[in-house]
Specification:
Cytidine Deaminase, domain 2; DNA polymerase, domain 1; five-stranded mixed beta sheet; single chain
């Protein structure tokens, strides 16, 4: 018998056996990429319901929001890629609608789920803020301001409105863009304060650069608003600048 033919037949037989093995149900299970093929004790949704949200990793929590993966990737793998691309949960939470929808792997439904979840978290923080006594509990106010302003790409000028007991009764973003003396109009601040029936204000704005040192314009705006508010017996308790995990308080530094 021709040895070449015998060798070829052997290789063909081995290849056939190998192909047959890969087509078995067991091989298909091993090659499956969907989370549905995982044991129930390892699926993020089931683990969340069984053990609580704290038991899940950041990627697993994001995977629950995603609900499903994309072709060739399960939801957890896609979640890990998103967290890596945006620098973790903080970066992902700061993404705007347009950028989110352009992200590969996120269709309209997934993007909408993320945006809804982000807004629910912000509103919950806002509800907790209302009624807080700023003098007695400034830390919780700062936490809220971090969550809402820290990662903004543009400067936002926010005003917190307080009653006679120094409790927060409302807040508004009044100006956005370059915050300078020309852009901030005292009449708009006063109009909003009167609409909220406020007797005191906390001025807040962010520095997208992350640095919190007040500029000459920041000091001038504060002085201008303080003078305008004093004319109608409204006090400015503080002007807070939010940076990257740090803040500057005019009141704490005895500038106000």
């Amino acid at each position: 018998m021709d040895k070449t033919v015998e060798k070829t037949d052997s290789i063909t037989s081995i290849k056939s056996l190998s192909d047959g093995a890969l087509s078995t149900p067991r091989a298909k299970v091993l090659n499956a990429t969907g989370i549905k093929s995982w044991p129930a004790t390892e699926r993020p949704r089931e683990r969340l319901l069984q053990n609580g949200a704290k038991a899940l990793s950041d990627a697993e929590l994001v995977a629950v929001l995603l609900r499903s993966g994309v072709k060739g990737k399960d939801a957890v793998t896609l979640a890990r890629e998103l967290l890596s691309a945006f620098g973790g949960l903080r970066g992902l939470l700061s993404v705007g609608p347009a950028e989110l929808r352009k992200t590969k792997g996120l269709g309209v439904a997934k993007a909408a789920s993320f945006l809804a979840a982000f807004e629910i978290a912000k509103r919950q923080l806002r509800e907790e803020l209302t009624g807080k006594n700023f003098i007695r509990d400034p830390d919780s106010v700062i936490d809220y301001l971090y969550a809402t302003l820290r990662d903004k790409k543009r400067e936002v000028f926010k005003v917190l409105f307080l009653n006679k007991a120094n409790r927060i009764i409302g807040e508004e973003d009044l100006f956005e863009g370059t915050v300078d003396e020309a852009a901030i109009h005292p009449r708009e601040v006063l109009r909003a304060a009167i609409a909220h029936n406020a007797t005191a204000l906390i001025l807040v704005h962010n520095h997208p650069s992350g640095r919190t040192e007040p500029s000459a314009e920041d000091r001038a705006i504060t002085q201008k608003l303080q003078t305008a508010c004093a004319a109608v017996s409204i006090k400015i308790l503080d002007h807070i600048i939010i940076g990257d995990n740090q803040y500057f308080s005019f009141q704490e530094c005895n500038i106000l």
